[in-house]
Amino acid sequence: MKSPLAAIFLIGCCVAWSDAPAGEPEPEGKAKEPAVFVEGPAFLLTAECQIVTLPQKAALKLLPDLVDDGKINSAFDRLQTMIAAGEAELAGNLVVKTLEGKKGESESANEMHYPTEWDPYSLPDPQKLPQQDALEIVKNWPLVGFQPTAFETRNLGPQLEFTPLSHSLDGRSFEITVSAKDTQFLGWNRAPAGKTPAGGEITLDHPHFYGITNTSTLRSQNGQRFLLGVHKIPGDARLMEIFLLRVTATKSPKE
Question: Distance between CA atoms of 52 and 66, rounded to whole angstroms?
């Protein structure tokens, strides 16, 4: 499969600890009380961002199940089968481990350096050249254009930022803030920047980036997965990018 311009981000939420088993039903006849969330480093959380690329047709077929809480896990399993069969491609796997209340980051990046400022090359002073040859010398001067004087760096690829905020008193759910991003380089845009003494065109090339950001604050039940966003990628209409979330949590060790 060719290197994609699109990726599926799979991040999922699954929390387990002994005193709050996942999916345990409330006793019959007992009224539900509003959840109370408290802050504090009670849990150690791990967020996993799985990056997968797949054709748009296959992505659209999975979407109805990905937005259904009761079917999202089976849709995730089918996606893993597609990867094993070569129908989708695993492009990366980002993992963040952090204490509750602390921000964690993971990034798989390719640094790209590009110029942002330029100065023109200096031409000889016609007043200091032989008058009969000055015009021809300037027209045929070998260094014409601009030289870069300042550069910037852009990280290309996926990035995950994850902050668990608080947990419920019964340990059944927790609040998180997550930001899943992807930055891609699509090519160079050429812009006119003047004329040479001989009448030729001078141009400057600028990088063309494409960025996707999904930022959410969520309240997750144990074992729940989330669809964070769906995006169509420019440059290749056959591929789509989907963001999902997977997180696991354990009791934080006592000091």
Answer: 14
Backbone dihedral region of 18: left (phi > 0), alpha (psi from -120 to 50 degrees) or beta?
A: alpha
Q: With CA atoms as reference, report the closest residue to 220 among 166, 184, 173, 172.
A: 173
> How far apart, in whole angstroms, are the C-alpha atoms of residue 70 and residue 72?
6
Q: Would you give the end-to-end CA distance of the chain in angstroms?
A: 48
Which residues have a Cβ under 8 Å from the Cβ of 205 and sit 6 or more positions away?
188, 189, 190, 191
From first to last of the 255 residues of the chain, give the pLDDT tens digit. Answer: 444 444 444 444 333 333 333 334 444 445 555 556 666 667 888 888 887 889 999 999 999 999 998 999 999 999 999 989 999 888 778 889 999 889 999 998 999 999 988 777 666 666 666 666 665 665 666 556 677 889 999 999 999 999 999 888 877 788 999 999 989 899 999 888 777 666 778 788 889 999 889 999 998 877 788 888 888 877 777 898 888 888 888 887 765
Residue 137 — φ and ψ, nearest 5°? Answer: -65, -45
Structure pTM? 0.72
Helix %, strand %, coil % of the chain (to 5):
15, 55, 35
For tokens 């491609």, what's the residue? Answer: 89
